Each structure stands twice: as C-alpha cells, then as structure tokens.
Records
---
Amino acid sequence: MDEQVLKVQKIKNGIVIDHIPCGLALKVLKILGIEGDIGSTVTMAMHVRSKMGWKDVVKIEDRYLDDREIDKIALIAPTATVNVIRNYQVIKKHHVNVPEKIKGIVRCINPKCITNQNEPVEPEFYLVSKNPLVIRCKYCEREMNAQEIANNII
Ligand SMILES: [Zn+2]
C-alpha cells in the first residue's frame, strides 16, 4: 500500500511524510509553517488505509526538513516516516525518533516557569517516557503529556 500511495501522485523533488496518525496531517503542516507557504505544492491524503490501520500522508514539493523540524514531527507524530524524494526516487527514509533532550521546540505549560518569565532562557525538556509520551521541564520539572506537547510546539 505504501508504494501504491507513493505512486499515485509522485512528486519529483521534496518530501513525503508517511504514517502520520489519523487526523494529524494539518497539525504537521502547521508546525512546519506550511500554511502560508505558497512556494511549495502540498498534497494531503487523510484517512488512508494501510496495513497498520488508518493514517494520514503529506507530500510537500521542493521542500526539505532540517533536524529540528524532524524532531518536531516526532513529538506529535512518533510513528511517522519522512521520505526524501529526488527525481521521483526515494533517496532517504527517516523513521522519526523523539529526542532525549528537547530544546527550543516546546513551550513549558507552567506559567510560573522561568522560561515563561521574559528571561533569555530557552525551554528545555528531558524525555521521561516514549509510550505514552511524557517530557519533563529542565527548569520547573513540570511534566507534559502528548496532548499538551502538541498544543505547545513553538
Ligand atoms: Zn518549566
């Protein structure tokens, strides 16, 4: 099925983000700042049937991701894979991985946290658990779950 999906609307150069949990495609585009980006053609397939159940797929032409963007995707869609396409071929496949240290990607939900006090302190978290996803603030030790993380991606 994956191959079939890739074949249906092949893109020449860009990325295909596959195996996004159902309903999260728009959120993935949002954290990548794609909403207002008219330099890329975006194709979204929501609620696609796959061997592992339902999923969303996003294809973005002429756009590549840096490590920080891949980490952001991992935090909201830990099952995702990022395929890099050049000249219609998949040249690289990343299985996203939630980093042990999450710096400058998520805002702490504790309003009293030093990272929310207009101090020049960048938010930083440690990974507590991958499944279910839990991270802990380095400064105030507040823990955040997957939903809270998804709502506070910077
Ligand atoms: Zn904090």
Note: The pocket of zinc ion is lined by residues 108, 110, 113, 115, 137, 139-140, 142 (CB under 6 Å).
---
Amino acid sequence: MTWRIQRRNFLQVLALGATQSLVGRHCRAGDVNSKLRVASIGTGNKGRDDLLQVAASPLAEIVAICDVDDSLNHLGGAAEKFPRAMRFADYRLLLDKPDAFDAVIVSTPDHMHAPIALAALELKKHVFCQKPLAHTVDEARKMRLASERNGLVTQMGNQIQSHRFYRTAVRMIHDGAIGKVREVHSWQSGAMGWLLVDARPADADQIPKSLHWDLWLGVAPQRPYNDRLYHPFNWRAWQDFSSGQLGDFGCHILDPVFLSLDLNAPISVQADAPPLNQEVWARQCTVKYEFPGNTRTLGDVLSVTWYDGAGCHPDRAALGLPDSYEMPGAGSVLVGESGTLVIPHVGEPRLFPEDKFRDYAMPVMEDVNHYSGWVDACLGNGTTTSHFGYAGPLTEAVLLGAVAVRLPQEKLLWDTSAAKFTNHSAANGYLTKAYRSGW
Ligand SMILES: NC(=O)c1ccc[n+]([C@@H]2O[C@H](COP(=O)([O-])OP(=O)(O)OC[C@H]3O[C@@H](n4cnc5c(N)ncnc54)[C@H](O)[C@@H]3O)[C@@H](O)[C@H]2O)c1
C-alpha cells in the first residue's frame, strides 16, 4: 500500500480522535507530562504503517523522518503527512542530532536493523524495531545487551503478539488446556513471491534519481542496482539482506510458541534443505529445533519443527487432525498430553479432538495496542511485551535456523551462554558478518 492510498486511513485515525501534535513540546522520555519525540527510519510500506500507528498515540510526536528513497511512496509521502518533521536520507545524520528525539522506529530492510538500532541504543534512545530484530545472531545478542545495559524501552514489530488470537492461544497453554506439550510443528506454506531469480543478474539498471542506492545497501557488500530485485520488498530473497521466509515469518509464527512454552535458546538446530548458492534463500526447507524441556513441556527435550515454502506443512494425519479440518496456510500445532492446539497465523485457535473440547470455554482476551503500548512505556507507563529481552532470544533462534539452512543436514549444537556452536566452526562463521568498509 502506498502513502497516497494511506491518506484515507490517516484521516480516519484523525477522525477517531487519535491526533498528534506537529508542534508538541520538546521534552525528555520518562517525563509523564511530555510527548515522546519519535524519529522514524524507513517510511515506506511497513514503515508507513509503523509510523502512522505510533503517530496515532496522542502521546507521540513525529519529529524526524528518514528514508533512502525521496519518492512519494517513501520519504515524500511521509513528508506530506508530517511536514514539520526533519527529513533525512542518511540515518547517521539524523542520529547526529540526539537532542532532537527520544525514540526511534526502525522499519528498514532487515540488514540495516542492527546498525541503526544499536547506534540509537548507544545514544540511549528507546527503540521500536521491525522483526526479525537483526540479520545475524551476533547483532541480535548485542541489541539485547545494549537495551538492557542502557535501561531502554524496546519493542519488536511482531504486532500479532498483541492480537487477541495469539493472546488467547498463549493463555490456553498457560491454563493447561492440552496439558504439557510434547512437540510443536510450525509452518509458512506460502509461496515466496519475492524470490524472482536464482542468481545475480550480470547487468545493472539505472538508479532512480529518488533513490540513494549506496545508503540503501548500507553495511551490505556493494552490488549493482536492479530495478525489480531489491528495493522495495524483494530484498527478502537475498542472503545479503534477509534471512529468507524463516526470517520473515519466524518471529511471528514462533512467537506464541515461545511465549506459551517459555522457550529461550535451542540446544540444537538441523535443517533439511537443498544446497544453497551464495545469493538467494531456499524455496523450501525444514528446520528442526530442540529446546531444553521445562515445566510446560513433556520430557527433557522439546522438538519444534519449522516447515517453509509452498506446499510445506506438517502431516495432518500424523498429528491426528481430522480430514474435515482445513489446515491454515501458516501457523503452529502444539501436541500436548491431553489434546492438540492449532494456532493459525492469524486466526482463532482450535482444540482437537473436537468432541473432547466441545464444551471448552475459550478464554476471552482483548487486543492490545502494540504501538501505543511502546509509546506509553517509553513515557514511564507500563511495559512492553516484545522487548529485546524477549525478542532477542526469539530472533536468535530464528536466525540459528537460517544458519542451519546454509549447512543442510548438519546437526548444530548450540551453547547459548558461549554464543557459539560447539561442534561446527563453519557454522560459527555465519553468526556474524563483515560490514562494508566505511560503515
Ligand atoms: N510486522 C509485520 O507484519 C511486517 C510486515 C512487513 C514487513 N515487516 C518488516 O518491516 C521491514 C520493512 O519491510 P518492507 O516490506 O516494508 O520493506 P520495503 O523494502 O518495502 O520498505 C523499506 C523502507 O525502508 C526504506 N529504507 C531502506 N533502507 C533504508 C535505510 N538504510 N535508511 C532509511 N530507510 C531505508 C525504503 O526506502 C522503504 O521505504 C522489514 O524488517 C520487514 O521484515 C514487518
């Protein structure tokens, strides 16, 4: 959706009374009488949504916007909506004015989340960052540690966590609806519409005048511009910028699994995937995690299997789900000692066998505002639920899966306190990456 189409939604927000002052007082976060001065980095597509959702809080003031594309679908559209906000193409110039803002939204492609968010955290700014938090495990770990060290309010943009459907599913597990959980299967069986080619094209397209291509690349290695393969949206295909479909959806779909079962770091991860080239992600893969068992699970080890790509999902019959039940295109199945819970992405949770749970009283949960909750918490009111203390380990687990996809069939043993694999030096090489010279 573009900023032009978005204008109608923005007016609806205003009509609902969720206005924001363009000339609010300049004030510090933590002062409950003040507005939170927010800088938004990455203002197109999901960034536009994040920006408008935060701006809908009467306690937020958008003071700066930053995007590497000046056109109307990106910075230009945001500038129309927030004409008094300072404008930047280069986030580093924005961060050079730390007295002008209290908090940042980071909604860029994944490869730039950590460089931007870490710099903001070190400036002691609160951060709302899109999922997955980072592009490497090392970055995700550093983001958690920096947020904790600096005592900042953070939130990852896995907003479905705050939807009543996911909240209901978590409550059901916590209430013991299916008893202790024996195994989990999670999947995203959608086609990867952004995976358009298997190799980098030899030729280059002309860079549009509105786009600062070098800034878009940021810390990633230099490559020629192509007008359909990267910006916007299709960067998801490429290992230099994303972590594939697991990176795109893992922090959503595995979120209620993590929350309901109190999961943290896995102890092993193993992928079944075709050999990768050095460029794009696999069209289909399976990633099997083992987590240490805990009071919500059965046995010493909990198996969580991720199925990824068109047509990839767990075997319904093997899970005892009836033929009449149409499996959602994405979601999770939690198999417990006294029943099975399906958590569609995004839909009402379902219990099986249906006869057994016919009279089950589903807990009634409300939606929570994932965005204004962050604004409120930055101003000292309440807490966030997907703070980096939670979202960091979730992102690490997702990105460990992406490392396994690079090394198909290898069972990688993870030591989270040492932040390394104990049995595979090549896998350890994928936990971090070199930033481009000058970044
Ligand atoms: N939570 C969700 O449901 C959800 C949905 C979609 C996307 N996302 C996440 O949002 C992020 C953006 O995804 P998208 O689909 O909107 O991507 P996109 O490529 O469509 O848009 C990214 C925006 O960021 C700008 N940008 C790129 N590099 C920048 C930089 N270095 N500095 C400032 N601006 C920069 C682009 O010009 C564009 O406006 C990703 O992390 C993605 O995973 C989350």
Note: The chain has two domains: 3-160+371-386, 164-194+239-366+396-429.
---
Amino acid sequence: MKVLTYHNIDYPPKEAKLKSLYVNPDKFRNQIKYLKKFKNTVLSNEIDKSKNAVLLTFDDGYRDFIKNAYPTLKKYQAKALIFVVAGLTDKYNLWDWKKLNVKKPLMDWEEIKFLVSEGFEIGSHTITHPFLTKIPEKTAKAEIEDSKKILEDKLGVEIKTFCYPYGDYNQKVKEMVIDAGYKMAFTTKHGTFEESKDMFEIKRVTVFGHWILPQFLWKVLL
Ligand SMILES: [Zn+2]
C-alpha cells in the first residue's frame, strides 16, 4: 500500500514560495480519476494492505480541501485522512507563513465536522505545529495529548492517527504518541507502507504539484 501526502489543492498565489506543495484542482481530479477508473485502486481512509490500495492523506487541514478536493473525492467515492492543527482552526498557517510568504486559511470546526459526517477520517497534527524534538518535553507531551482531546471533544469521534509536524520526531516523541493512545503515526519519510519500520513511523509519498500524470502514476503504482 502507498500512503500519499497532499498539502494544498489549489493554484499557488504568485508570491508563494514552495509552490510544488500546491497541486492544482484539475491535476488532482485527473489523478483520482485515473486511480479509480483505470487502475481500480481502493481509496479508503484506513490502512488496507492489498497491493492496489492507496491512502490519501492531507496535511494541515487547509480550507482549499473543501472547495477543491472534497467535490472530486465525493464524485469518485474516495475517502481521505486529514491531519488538522487543533489549535489553529479557522486561522492560517501561523507556523510557516513568513517562510512561505503566504497566509493559507485553515478549516473551521463546522467544515471539519462536515467532513466527519461525510465519512472522512480526521487525525491530529498537534495544537500549534511545532518541531516536537525542539521544544521542552512537557510542552511536546501536551501538544500530542491535548490535541487528541480537543479534536475528540469537538468532533465526537475517536482520533486514532497522528502526523509529526515537519516529520520531526525521535524515540521519545514516538513513545509520547504511543502513550497518548494513538494507533498509528505518519512521517514525511519516503516509502511504501510495507517499508515502514512500524505503525508509528509510517512512510508516505509526497505528491508534488509539478508532476505530470504519468509521473504520478509511476510514483504511486510502482
Ligand atoms: Zn504540517
């Protein structure tokens, strides 16, 4: 199984840096269409070890998901796992807007609740998106534990998955994630699910906006 990582599904604003993290909505539609119609890929929101299964993950919970990704996923009856920054709903990417030179709006609770009601899975991406190995242990523990509680209180569902901001973790951080009661955690390391060390170091494939369709299919299906 491959786990794909998306960030923004949108056209990047002119001034934005790291434009490759934006996949334009037409490209995204074609990617999903190909996977579903021609490759018969299973697009569920959980781990499925069959060879043609793909798990779509979306980091940070950007509002463009609702406008540009949701309609396509709905059309092709695909589900996804979305990692939300629990303390920044309805705000923007406070953690990297200066570096990226763009303020990207994040979904509010109503939008996230709607996605839950539509069968999407929500995971935790901490409260404020810090580098977890670079802050005091106590703070890291709160980011990991309290984000789960906030999301569960607001959404009324169990939050089973966690995603390390910036892919930053070490053994201690990983143990905190396990102790908090999560069932699995996702990294930014490249690889297939089967190549992952364990359920708390799941490897993924980041989808870049400059990929053309054959490139996408090659990276995702091989
Ligand atoms: Zn992130």
Note: The chain has one domain: 2-221.
---
Amino acid sequence: MRIYRRFLHATPWYLAKYYWWAYLFRPTVWFFDHQWIINAILFGQYKKLMRKTLALLKDEDLSLPLQLTSVYGCLSPTLAERAAPNSLHLTDVATVQLEHTLRKIPADKRLYCTRMNAEHLGYADACFSCVIVFFLLHELPVDARERVLREAIRVLKPGGKLLVTEYGSTPNRHLLYRFGFTRWVLGKVEPFLPGFWQEDLTKILQDYALDQGHTLLVEHEEDVFNGFYRVVSYRLSE
Ligand SMILES: C[S@@+](CC[C@H](N)C(=O)[O-])C[C@H]1O[C@@H](n2cnc3c(N)ncnc32)[C@H](O)[C@@H]1O
C-alpha cells in the first residue's frame, strides 16, 4: 500500500498524494515549521516575501481578514498581531496544520480556525474584508485552483483586497528556471508548479470576478527574487 493512502481521509487527493510528507505527517510538520528551514525552501526569501505581503496590508481594512490555509513560519502570528483587536480567520483542510498554527498565536491575540476545503468554503458570500493567499495556488491542480480562486473572490466583500504571494509567472530570466536541472527538481517536488508558471493568474482571476458580477483590479504587483516570486494585491469592485 502506498504511504499517502493513509492520509487520504477527508483530505483532497492531491494534498495526500503529493504533500503528505510536507503538511500532514506530524513529525515533518514539526520539522518544517522552523524559520530557517522554510526560509531555505524559499531560497532565503521568506522574510522579504512576508515583509512585502504585510506592507500591502498597511492602512487596509483588517476588520475581518481571512488567511486561506496555514503556512509555516511567522506569517500567521504576525497577521494576528496586525489584525488585533479584531480576529484573524484561518481555514485549512488539515487538522494538524490548524493545531500547529494555533500554538504559534500569542495568548492575547485572537485566531478563529476552521477546518474546510478551500475549494468549497462554508463561509457566506462577501464576508471578509481581505483574503490572504500565501503560496497555496502552485500546490493545486488546475481544477482545484479554479475552485479555490472562485471561492476566494466569493467570500471577499466588494471593495475588499485579495492578496496573493506566489511563484512568479514563467521566470525566464531566473537562473533557477533557466537551469534545466533545478527546474526539473522543482517540478518533481512541486508537481503543479510547471502548470502554474504558465498561467496568467490575473486574467484568470479577473474572468472569475466577472462571472460573479465584479471587476478585479490589480492594485500592486511586485517581483521578488528577480521574478521568481511575486506579491500581488487586487481590489474587488464595490
Ligand atoms: C499554504 S500552502 C503552502 C505554504 C507554504 N509552503 C508555507 O508553508 O510557507 C500549505 C497549506 O495548504 C493546505 N491546503 C492545501 N490544499 C488545501 C485545500 N484544498 N483546502 C484547504 N487547505 C489546503 C495544506 O493543508 C497546508 O497547510
């Protein structure tokens, strides 16, 4: 029996099959959630990516922020800090991830955790003032990615901000991409990344917003690490 099948219970197949070792297996969850490890995985860019993500939340309405899925490192505690005295909402499909994040939140800050598949959120329409998606999209197969993005738009209030921190689109200029071996390794470890690289994220999001009767404007887009990563914020029309 393949190991990943043990993790299939109430878990999307792609998460169990390709990422059980990263997000579902308790000992490795503990292992990966060290700042220097997650920083190494992101080629030393974690702090910079987090700083740029948080900068885009400056002066933003944080009355009801949603972090769409857990992340390793100190992003969630920092977001909870920023949102205080309001609560940060966080949803993830993996209980072990939610438990792990809860332990990182200072006792005087508020975090509401829910366990949901981001493809089918149980939240009402237009309920969050901003939605933050940090390195989730490239880990999803294309159909799951579509559902997650449609849900992210659906739960966002008109006038709200959608913040995406991700791999850049086809980073032709970057050595890690140009060098066939590293591109091959990345594609092995992150099997949906090659597809994600080719997608026009903004166009896709704008199409999904239009389907829901909104326009979605790029408010800020910034390359990080010579375009290997990006931080983009979008504003949903009123
Ligand atoms: C945000 S992503 C990657 C984060 C990034 N590698 C980091 O830790 O900085 C990883 C999280 O997404 C969650 N996840 C993946 N697919 C999901 C889905 N369909 N619904 C909810 N959570 C999901 C996983 O359980 C995991 O906690």
Note: The pocket of S-adenosylmethionine is lined by residues 12, 15, 23, 38, 69-73, 92-94, 97, 117-119, 134-136, 139, 144 (CB under 6 Å).
